[in-house]
Write a structure and sequence with these properties.
The chain has 412 residues and is of the alpha/beta class. The chain folds into 2 domains: 185 residues, 3-Layer(aba) Sandwich (Rossmann fold), CATH 3.40.50; 179 residues, 2-Layer Sandwich (Nucleotidyltransferase, domain 5). The chain is built from 16 helices and 15 strands. It has an 8-stranded mixed sheet, sandwiched between helices. A 7-stranded mixed sheet has the order 9-15-12-11-10-13-14. Helix 3 packs across helix 4, helix 13 crosses helix 16 and helix 14 crosses helix 16. The radius of gyration is 23 Å and the shape is elongated. The protein starts with a helix and ends in a 13-residue tail after the last helix.
């Protein structure tokens, strides 16, 4: 069977080891494309016939990411006759067994676990899972022989998964936890040319984490290793390369009162994303603040004749969002997830799929000064320095949530 031959020896031993002989918690951690998720497929298939009380769970950041990262390949593997999946309810019928698929986006998600008894749990992208959800999940795994399997790329060495579980000698001594560190070298299916291209694409922090699989602290410049002047273009007005084909057009916003208010205009031709224009109102430089109504009028001026495009506004800018809605502007709440948004921008940069107009001077400056907060990093909190980050934040909002993961990052 081709599936059984597709593992390297280290991952293969983990994937095909009998569930009944595994530890209670089993984690694969390391670089991208190291066959971590492929090994989880083997555990899911074993789990279909594993006799255990309670629910069989598959969980991750959201149902969409679970489908993309785990279920899509799993369904291709087993064939359409052997599964039935209801995306709305999350109920999966697989090889005569029943599974529950559940997202774990924030700490509040743990309430959906209360009252459940769970015998088998498959966890995708563990470092993105809220600690409270993971802890609640473990408390629900009361049946004798319950097992948890997870995969993850590394994060900060201060991340709770690293400090509370992976580095806990008591869990290992009692054989409650097993972990395996893997890299691309553990995946025999990768073309050497592909591996070399991935090593070239990733830079700095993301190279250490996604290629070397290291748990390292975020420090220094955020996009400095990915950003390069060859991403700057001078063309005005912009001429999209595939005019007449796919084109998406939107505006992102970083809302400010005591700090700058930023609008950025993006065009996506299906290949490149072009940040073509910016508008910034710095109340300190201008010596006066504008009202939300005045900002909404400035936005209409910035939009020009095409007022049908989408505008991404941060979730906490409620009053400004309402002012825009009152004027008939198509408003969407921006995805302001920090580290993931930073990864999205970095990925588009290293893949050379982002272009920034030289006229966007404030944005270019913001990219160059965007840096990790060293004081927060030492406490395990990965956030940028909250000063001079307005244009960089607008860029992050403008790409994250609009650009699918497959356009800039290979799955784990």
């Amino acid at each position: 069977m081709k599936f059984l031959k597709s593992f390297g020896p280290r991952v293969g031993r983990f994937a095909l080891y009998p569930i009944e002989n595994d530890c209670r918690i089993n984690i694969l951690e390391g670089s991208v494309r190291s066959s971590k998720t492929w090994a989880l497929h083997a555990k899911i298939l074993q789990g279909c016939r594993y006799r255990i009380g309670g629910w069989r769970f598959i969980t991750g950041q959201s149902k969409d990411t679970i489908f993309t990262n785990v279920l899509n390949d799993l369904f291709a593997l087993v064939g359409p006759k052997y599964y039935n999946y209801n995306h709305q309810t999350g109920i999966l019928r697989l090889l005569k067994s029943t599974w529950k698929v559940m997202g774990a986006k924030d700490e509040g998600s743990e309430k959906f676990l209360r009252g459940s008894t769970i015998g088998l749990a498959i966890c995708d992208e563990l470092v993105l899972m809220p600690k409270g959800f993971f802890q609640m999940l473990l408390t629900r795994m009361s049946p004798k022989g319950a097992r948890l399997y997870g995969s993850t790329n590394p994060d900060s060495p201060m991340h709770w998964l690293k400090t509370d579980y992976l580095d806990d000698p008591v869990l290992r001594k009692k054989k409650l936890l097993y972990s395996l560190h893997v890299t691309m070298d553990d995946n025999p299916n990768l073309d050497p040319e592909f591996v070399e291209s991935q090593k070239a694409f990733y830079k700095g922090l993301f190279f250490q984490r996604f290629i070397l699989g290291q748990w390292v602290m975020a420090e220094g410049s955020i996009w400095g290793d990915a950003w390069n002047d060859d991403l700057i273009y001078d063309e005005a007005p912009l001429t999209l390369k595939n005019a007449g084909g796919f084109v998406d057009h939107w505006i992102s916003n970083d809302y400010g009162t005591s700090h700058p208010m930023v609008f950025q205009e993006f065009w996506d031709d299906g290949d490149f994303v072009w940040l073509d224009r910016e508008w910034v109102w710095d109340s300190k430089e201008e010596m006066r603040q504008l009202t939300d109504g005045q900002y909404a009028e400035k936005l209409l001026e910035f939009m020009g004749r095409d007022r049908s495009c989408q505008v991404l506004i941060p979730p906490d800018a409620l009053s400004f969002r309402q002012e825009c809605i009152n004027r008939g502007i198509w408003v969407t709440e921006a995805n302001n997830e920090g580290v993931e948004g930073i990864q999205t921008v970095a990925g588009m940069m290293v893949m050379r799929k982002l272009r920034v107009n030289r006229q966007c001077r404030r944005t270019i400056r913001g990219i160059n000064i965007y840096a990790w907060d060293p004081n927060k990093a030492r406490r395990g909190i990965e956030e940028p320095v909250a000063q001079g980050d307005d244009e960089a934040s607008a860029l992050r909002y403008g790409l994250h949530g609009k650009i699918p993961r497959w356009r800039f990052m290979q799955p784990a």
